[in-house]
Amino acid sequence: MTGQKSVSWRCVDLDTTSQKLEERVFQKRKEIQKAEAEIEQLKETMRAEEWLEQDLRQLERAEQEVLEILRQSWQGSKANGFHHYIEDVQLEESRAWKKGFAQRQMNLEQACSEQTKSLFHLENQQQDLQREWTSYESH
């Protein structure tokens, strides 16, 4: 009788261990899905930033065209000084926008890289758990 109880308890232990491993595998799958969704969101934000940057470049070209028209039509020292002032303001705004875009792009790329590393780590953990779970299932 004692031998049967020992085998019975061993089966219960294996079932419990197998169930816990299965739960951990499914938890890792959820974490992986979440990490993948976050990476996709970061990439979408990066694409939106690129579109904004393209819009800014188009706006800058339009501003340059307007400034050129004004430069040709203005006359006198006061008008000349004013158009230099407007060009300086436009240049400063352009630099600030470009700096902001570059900083956001760098932050997004860094976050995407970190999230990708995290995803690889989670996938490796899931594979390890899957192997362990499979070995328990085969016993």
Can you describe this structure?
The protein has 139 residues and is mainly α. It has one domain. The longest helix has 72 residues. It is rod-shaped, with a radius of gyration of 31 Å. The model has no long low-confidence stretch (mean pLDDT 84).
How would you sum up the major sheet?
A: none
Secondary structural class: mainly alpha
Whole-Å distance between the termini?
22 Å
Order of helices and strands: HH
Morphology: rod-shaped
- Overall mean pLDDT stands at 84
> How many H/I helical runs?
2
- The total tally of domains equals 1
Strand fraction equals under 5%
Any idea what the radius of gyration is?
A: 31 Å
Outline:
Keywords: Coiled coil. The protein has 139 residues and is mainly alpha-helical.
How is the topology of this model organized?
Blueprint: H1 2-73, H2 77-137
Helix pairs in contact: 1-2
Keywords: Coiled coil
Coiled coil: 18-72
Question: Descriptors for this entry?
Answer:
single chain; about 95% helix; about 0% strand; coiled coil
